[in-house]
Amino acid sequence: MALRHAVLAALLDGEYSGYQLAKAFDAGVANFWHALPQQLYAELTKLEADGLIAGRQVIQETRPNKRLFHVTEEGLAELERFAAATAKPSFIRDDLLVKVQAVDRIEAAPVIEQLAARARTAAAKAGILEQLAARLRGGRDEADFLAHGTRLGPYLTCLRGLAFERETRDWCERSAEILRARYDGGRQP
Amino acid sequence: MALRHAVLAALLDGEYSGYQLAKAFDAGVANFWHALPQQLYAELTKLEADGLIAGRQVIQETRPNKRLFHVTEEGLAELERFAAATAKPSFIRDDLLVKVQAVDRIEAAPVIEQLAARARTAAAKAGILEQLAARLRGGRDEADFLAHGTRLGPYLTCLRGLAFERETRDWCERSAEILRARYDGGRQP
DNA sequence: GCTAGCATGTAATCGGTTACATGATTTT
DNA sequence: AAAATCATGTAACCGATTACATGCTAGC
């Protein structure tokens, strides 16, 4: 069970609708997990049926009605159990890496292009995460926040995402440059 | 189709049996993809049926017989097509991050322990990848290898893996320290 | 008038994980 | 004598992706 606990963790910071959660789990701002809207709606239904979250209907005049969810005590207990169990290792699985692995046996140009594109999206995500980190710190400097701030968790996962995106950007840029120097849009000899 | 192309890319460097591939795709040394033995045996069967790889039986006296596979021209063409198609973005999905996200609402001690454990495995993987990088360079210095070496692909994915593992180690160590300073094995106030 | 955003889902499929199964040889 | 290594699979299940579906409001 995977998404389940990610949703519980996301709901710790307040009430969210499926739609709001979907936005958070989508786009680069998903620091610690990723999921599509359909998955989230399904998972919210199951979590509510299991009593781990509870929802309340919010009637809106000008917008469709929505349901806002929060974690119940049972839900918190479930998170607690999950966090105490040993985590399974995580793996890299990335199409782009497969392409780079093969790059000197196939046409290099499209791979170089994709590396450049990935570098750009990683840089953009890094920018967003920098802003998120600043917002989470809320004016304090980092040392102060780490010593006295509430909710270190989201800040730490944000730092992780930030480091990851910067790393991705740097590696993509460097790799693209190296490959350009070797193959310059052409093919392997 | 995902694993398919990872297997093709892995087979570019020579002939491998399912068993040998499984070792490469398992353990930390899977620079660019991860898969379990069962998946690999199934995928090899399909790839052979589709004519993208070909295998030859090797009869062994003291060991069970095995089949060694290599990529066919059709297989290479398929990789080519795959590499030219735009890559889908990759996402972080890590149990440990979910736990850290929730850390100040639940018992911190087990999370800190798991961060420390993850730091250790990441450090170990980094060590293995450093050795792999040195082996791929084969005595030359990096600039020389990047300019004149064959098979840049595996080296670049290795560098990526190395940077990722170091990053993971550093983040885990730092986060564990920060959390220890705050909660020191105890619970959130 | 058209596009983007709010809000929520169902159904089919695919890819990955878990569990189970076998059997010989080499190393501890 | 026990454990690890070589070598190859089958079957059931679960989680994630893709495709499809609906309908109203705000802004360009």
From TrEMBL, chains A, B:
Query: For the Transcription regulator PadR C-terminal domain, which residue ranges apply?
Result: 92-179
Coiled-coil annotated spans: none
> InterPro entries in the record, alphabetically?
Tscrpt_reg_PadR_C, Tscrpt_reg_PadR_N, WH-like_DNA-bd_sf, WH_DNA-bd_sf
The segment(s) forming the Transcription regulator PadR N-terminal domain are: 7-80
UniProt protein name: PadR family transcriptional regulator
Superkingdom to which the source organism belongs: Bacteria
